[in-house]
Write a structure and sequence with these properties.
Two copies of one chain form a homodimer.
Chain A: H1 8-35, H2 40-47, H3 51-63, E1 67-69, E2 75-77, H4 79-101, H5 106-116, H6 122-134
Antiparallel strand pairs in A: 1-2
Helix pairs in contact in A: 1-4, 2-3, 4-5, 4-6
Bound molecules: manganese (II) ion (MN) (4 copies).
Chain A binds a DNA duplex through helix 1 and helix 3.
Chain lengths: ~140, ~140
DNA sequence: CTCTGAGTTTAGCCATTGCTAAACTGACTG
DNA sequence: CAGTCAGTTTAGCAATGGCTAAACTCAGAG
């Protein structure tokens, strides 16, 4: 029997498996909100990665049911993708606001929150929310 | 580990490139401290990953100058590896203590700090240190 | 209408990090 | 001092996420 002893490193590994997905659906959500539509070139610009990498990553997102797109067409979030995007954006915002409430400069807070957001459990997220509120 | 400014996603990508290295040198440091020596099997047990994966990862660590090892021999940190291990352990401890000071349960704090530690800039680390001291 | 070029896709490469199966080493054990 | 076997290495596979070069599409300019 596979003992599957979950330890703290296993948690971090699984966080990383979903990290890119979360950042992509967040970005697609924001680009659609700003431009009305999202094209591969917008994502390449956002992530500073080649358009070819974007193309294959979006293919995985589609395979996994987060986006819908046709050849040469725009990239749209599915219901599942939209749900993940909203949850991720909310969590990301809380982490950012928390770092700002801690007194971190905005540019550092923006950079740090981009990585930290993916490793914050619901319990820690809640504590961050309370801390923000305690600081008005 | 907080280098390359570029944009916020580039920072996260470079953090991840060093993340595994940091966790490994930390683990090797601790295992040597506890057992007097570190073998591949100890790391496989620690990371819940196959011994083959450990073998190849240690090979990369050696290639990059963090560890020294001979076939069938124990794994030792180089000066560079020891330095990184100590810095990583210190940063990790601060992140853990910070989460505890925030009121997070120990088991959650242990799990979350394992991922968060790699995305914390010096500025944020400093703010965490001050927060811990303010709670003394 | 045709042509053109920005944007997309395809082809093909690489490194990392995971795996299983199988071969090999060398340190205790009997 | 030969055998055993836990631990290590090798071989070979896969998925992810990077890249460049080259081929292809299609909407708008002419
Ligand atoms: Mn985000
Ligand atoms: Mn992020
Ligand atoms: Mn870690
Ligand atoms: Mn991470």
């Amino acid at each position: 029997m596979a003992t599957a002893k979950q330890n703290r490193h296993s948690r971090t590994r699984s966080d990383h498996a979903t990290e890119l997905t979360e950042d992509y659906v967040e970005a697609i959500f924001d680009i659609v909100a700003a431009n009305g539509t999202c094209r591969a070139v917008d994502l390449a610009n956002q992530f500073q990665v080649s358009h070819v990498t974007i193309n294959r990553t979006v293919g995985r997102l589609q395979r996994d049911g987060y986006v819908e797109t046709e050849p040469y067409g725009p990239i749209e979030l599915t219901t599942k993708g939209t749900k993940l995007a909203k949850a991720s954006k909310e969590r990301h915002q809380i982490v950012l606001d928390f770092l700002l409430a801690l007194g971190i400069s905005r540019s550092t807070a923006i950079a740090d929150s981009e990585g930290i957001e993916h490793h914050v459990s619901p319990e820690t997220l809640n504590a961050m929310k309370e801390f923000i509120e305690s600081k008005d």
